[in-house]
Amino acid sequence: MRVPKTLSVAVAAIFLATIFAPxxxxxxxxxxxxxxHFQHPAYSWDDDMTPKIEALETVAESCGLxxxxxFAGKFxxxxxxxxxxxxxxxxxxxxxxxxxxxxxxTQLCFPDAYLKRLSYMGE
Length: 123
What we know:
The protein is α+β, with helices and mostly antiparallel strands. It has three helices and five strands.
């Protein structure tokens, strides 16, 4: 049985798209060191978060780290969009090696910190 050429081309295109789509998604993402995430209503600030964030910032400063935080919904690829606040340390064009070094330094103060590739949508 002979497969029509147009079908073969379509199957090849789907195959290539499947292989290269994850690579393209990763090219648009950056390594982030996640220090903590908190559950709360999506895109809704809870005043109880302020002392929790301040406590994390105090620990971070004593370790020579700077924290950045925003709603999880602004990070695609996070998987837990909406309903969580992500507190991250270190991002913006870090190489994977630099991110691993930053993670190791962060874990001295925040043992549960972990590394994840994310895309940040910002404001």
